[in-house]
Amino acid sequence: MQHLPDSRTHTRGNVTPTRERHRGMQALAWLSLLVALSLLVTAILYIPGAVGAVFGGVSESRPTSATVLEGTVLVQPPATATWQGLATRAELAEGTRLRTDDRSRAFLRTREGSTALLYNDTELAVQRMRYGRFNPALQDSVLRLFNGRVQIGVAQHPVTPERRITVLAAEGRLDLREGTYRVEMEADGAVHLSVRQGTALVWLGSRVVEAPAGRRVVLQPDGSILGPLPLERDLLRDPLLDHLTDGTAWTAFVVTEAGTSGTVTPQPTAVWFERQTPDGSTDRHGESGIVQDLDRDVRDYVNLSLRADVRTDRQTLSGGGTAGTEYPLMLRLTYLDAEGREQIWATGFYHQNDAGLSVKLGRQIPLGEWIAFDHPTLLQEIRPAPVRLRRLEVLGSGWEYRSAVRRVELTGY
C-alpha cells in the first residue's frame, strides 16, 4: 500500500527556519538602527566641536593704525628694503617697520584698542598682528623694538582677560598684560621695562621674571636679568664721581670772563672747584665745573629727583651776585621745553651774603660743612616743563670761591 507524505509535517519543517530568519533580520535592523543613532549622537556632540576647533584656529592679519604726532616718520613696508615718509595717517600691514628721528614721534593703535607711542630716535616693527577670523578670543600681537623708547598701553580684551601683547627687544621677550608700560633700549643694548600698571613676564632664554605694577626689570647685555627693581632709575652715569679722570661720564670745563681762571681738582673723596688769588682781588665772573650730557626724553615721566652732597669753603662775592645767578657752588640743568626752546633750571649754595645781594636761586648752608641736598619733586618745580634733558652741570662760580661735591644723583620714573 502506497503512503502519501503528510502535508502537516512538511509545513512544520519549513516554518521554523523562516521564523529564525525573520528574527535575525529584525535583530540586524535594530542593530543598524542603534548604530545609526549612535553615529548621529556622536556627530551632534563632536563634529561641531571639531569644526569649531578647526575654524577657531583660523587667523587673519589686520592692519594697525598709525598717526604722525610731529616731525617726519619713516616707514619700511614689509618685504621691501627702502624707507619712505609716512603719511599723517596710515594703515600698517604686519611686517612694517617705523623709524623716528630726534624731532619726530608716532602713535599706533591696534584693532582691539591697544596703543604704542614711539618717542624720538626709535625704531619699531609691527611684526605680527593676527586675529581670529571666527574666534574673537584668538589674538597674536607681536612688536619688535630695535632701539629707542616706546610707551605701550594694552587694552582690556573683551573675551580673553589673560591676553598678552608681546614685545621683542634684543634677546628678551616681554609679555604684557592689560596695563601701561614703558620699554627703553639703551645705546649699550640694555633693555629697561617699567610697569606703570599691569603685570609683565620678562623672558631671557629659559629664565623668566614677573614684574608687577610699580616695578622695573632690566635685561643686561651680558645676558643677566635685574629685578624687579624700584620704578625710579638713575639718569646719570657715575653719580659718585669715581671715574671723572677717565672722562667716561663727566667732562671738566672752565669759563673765565677776565682775570684768573678757575680749576677743577678731582680727589679721592670729592671734586673741588677753586678760583683764588693771593690778595683776593678778582672781581669778574668766572666758572669751573663738570658736565654730563644726558640727551634723555622725559615727557612721560611723572617725577624727577636731584640729590647731591655739597660744601662751600670760600666766596668773595656775596650771596648770588647782583643778578642772583652766581654762587660758589651751583647745580645747573639744561633742557628743552615743548616748543623746542632751551631752558635752564639752577640752584646755588652760599654761606655768606654780607652785601645783601640777590639770592633768588640760592640756598644758604654752613661754611665748611658737607650738606646733603635733596630735591625729590624737581619735575613739579621746573617751568616750563621739560621734554628732553640736555645736560647737568656742577660748578663753582662768581669771583673767588672754593667749593666741592662728592655725590650727584638724578633719578626719575
Structure description:
The chain is mostly beta strands and 413 residues long. It folds into two domains: 59-231, Jelly Rolls; 244-412, Glycoside hydrolase family 11/12, catalytic domain (Jelly Rolls). The protein contains two helices and 30 strands. It has an 18-stranded mixed sheet that branches. Strands 19, 21, 22, 24, 28 and 30 form a six-stranded antiparallel sheet that branches. Strand 17 (215-219) and strand 18 (225-230) form a beta hairpin. The termini are far apart.
Largest sheet: 18 strands, mixed
What is the second-level CATH architecture of the largest domain?
Answer: Sandwich
What is the top-level CATH class of the largest domain?
Mainly Beta
Q: What general outline do the C-alpha atoms trace?
A: elongated
| CATH third-level topology of the largest domain | Jelly Rolls
Count, helices: 2
Find the count of extended strands (DSSP E, 2+ residues).
30
Give the amount of beta strand, in percent: over 45%
Number of domains: 2
Radius of gyration: 38 Å
Distance between the termini: 129 Å
The assigned structural class equals: mainly beta
Instruction: Please give the share of residues in helix.
Output: 10-25%
* Multimer state: single chain
Mean of pLDDT: 90
Low-confidence stretches: 7-13
